[in-house]
Amino acid sequence: MTTVTTGTGFVLWLTGLEGGSAAGLVHTLEAGLRERGHRVEVLDFDEAREHLGQGLGYSRAERDTIAVRMGWVAGKLAEHGVAVLVPVVSSRQALDRVRDSIPTFVEILVEGAAEPGPATDVIVAADDGGTEVPARRVLVALELRGLTGPDGGDDGYSSAEEDAVAAHLRDLGYLE
Amino acid sequence: VTVTSNQARRQGRRVALIGLDCATPELLFERFAEDMPTLSALRARSLWGPLESTAPPNSIPAWPCMLSGRTPGELGVYGFRNRTDRSYDGIRFSTSKAIGVPRLWDLLGSAGLDSIVLGVPQTYPPSPVRGCMVSCFLTPGTGAQFTFPAALRDEVQQVTGGYMLDVTDFRSDDKDRVAQQVFDMTEQRFALARHLATTRPWDLLAMVDMGPDRLHHGFWRHYDPEHPRHEPGNRWTTLFRDYYRALDRHLAGLLEALPDDTDVVVASDHGAQPMLGGFCVNEWLVQEGLLVLTQPPSRPTPIAKAGVDWSRTLVWGDGGHYARLFLNVEGREPLGAVPVREYETVRQHLIDRLEALPDHQGRPMGTRVLRPEELYPEVRGVAPDLIVYVGNLRWRAVGSLGLGRGLYTFDNDTGPDDANHAQQGVFMLAGDGLAAGRRDDLSIYDVAPTLQSLFNLPRQQGQRGRVLT
Fold it and tell me: What does pTM read for this prediction?
C-alpha cells in the first residue's frame, strides 16, 4: 500500500552541510522516505548549477540565485506529492525566500559532523518557527508534522492553535 | 493557430462555486427572493432547489462531503472535533489533513486545471493546489500560514486591509459590532474572490462565505416573529433583510467580473431554523443512571472536566447542534462498562428513551436518534455510537453539567445561539446548455460528481451522488 496521497509533498532544505558530510544524512533520509512509500527527489547543487546556473559564478549572491531557483523547482515537485531533499549551502535570505514560497517547507540545520546517529547534532526547524527536535529523530519529526506515515499524521494544530480554535468555536456556541 | 491545451481544458468549462454557509431555502427562495434580484434572476435560469445535507448537517462534515462526494463515515469526520482513539480525552479538531480523499480542486489539479479555493471549511492548514488557496474559518489566526502559496498571504492582507477569517467574539453583547463584522466579512470575502478571479488563471473558483451562518446564529430571534424569544419592534428587525440585500449586491459585483461562459453554482451546506432551547443531554444520562460522576459539579462544567467515574459509566455525550453519544464498551474503552453482548440492547434503550422524551411543557419533542452504520455505507475513524437530533434539530444539545436548571435550559450562557441547523440547504446551477427548473430531490452528494462532469472528470471510485446535468 502506498502512503503517498494528494498534498503530501514537501521540501526538506538541508543547510549547514559541508561537502561529503551531507551524503550520509541525505541517503538516510532518502531511504527512509522511500520506505514509507514517498516519491523522493534529491536536488544536487552541482547538477543544478549546470542546468539552472549557467553563466553564474561562485560568489555568495550567485550561489543564492541558484539556491532560489532550486527552491522553485523543489516547490513545484512538492506540489505534485514528491518529497524533495535539497542539501545546499545558502544564505539566510535565500532560505527565507524559498521558505515563504513553499507551505510544506522544513528546514534541517546540520551542525557539526553530519553522519546520522546518536551523536549527530542536527536540528529540524519547523517552517512555522515551532519546536526544534534532535536530528536522529528527523523522520519521527516528519511523522509528527503529518508529512509522512500511513495515516497522514497529526491533526495539524499545535496546542496553542487548538486553544485558539476552541475559544473561537466556544464564542460561536459550537463547543461547550 | 494550433491549440495544444489538454483534453480536459479544451472540452471542459469554467465553474464558479459560490458557497453561502447556512443559506436556507425558505429565506433565499421565498422570504427574501424579491430583495435579491441578482440571485433570483440567476435562479430563473438555474437547476435549483433545496439541497439535502449530510447527517449531521454541520459545516464540518458537510463542506468536505459536498466537495469530495463522500459521506462523513467514509471521511471519518463527524463534526468540528472527533475522537482520535478510544481514550476518554483523545479529541482533536478537524483539519485538512483528516481528508484522505481528493476534493474537487485536487482532481482538477491532476487534470492540469487551475483552482482558486477561498474560505472553504476544513482547508486549514492549506494544502498545495494547482492555483491558490486561502484557508477557512478554523484557521487559528492570520498569524498562521493560511494561504497557498505562502506569498499570497501578503497580497490577501493588502487587498482586504486585514483579512477576516471569521466574526470574532461572537458571544459579545455588543451586537452592533457583531452585526458590522458580519456585513464587513461578506463584503470582504466577495471582494477578495473578485480580486483573485481577475488576477490569475482559473477553471474552478470555489469560495465560501460564513456570513449567513453568523447572521442566523446571532440574530434569528430578532428577525423571526416565530422565534420563542422574539421581541416585536426590536432594533434588529430588518437586519436580515438588509444583509440579504447587501449580499445580493456583492453577488452581482462578483458575477459581473466573471467571464461570460462561467457556469455558476450557489450552494449551502445546511439550512437554519429557530432554536427553541437547550436540552442537557449529559444531565439526562446522569438522571438515567447511565453516566456516573465522582462528584456533581456545582457550576457549569464541560463533560471533559466533570469528574466521570468511568468504571461505572455506560454512556456519555458531546454537545452542540446535535449530540453524539459514546458507549463505554468493555474491551474497547479503557474502563469499559458495557459488555459487548449488551451493546445493541443499550443503544436500543437509549433510542427508545430519547425519542419518547417530551419537551419542557410535556409535549412530544420529535427527537431522532441515528445509528452511524445505518447512515453511512462505511464508518471510519472513531464514530459516535449514536447521533441525536434533539427535537429534530430544533433544540440544542447541551453537553455541560452543573447548570442547575434541570434538563431544559433557555439561558444564553449555555445556548448562545438563536438558530440551530436544518437539514436542507440550497443549490442552484446555471450554465449555457444546462437544464433549468426546480428539483426537490437534490442531495449534497450530487454536487461533486455534477461539477466533475462539467470538467469531463470521471466519477471517483466510491463517490456518492448523481450527475444532475
Answer: 0.77
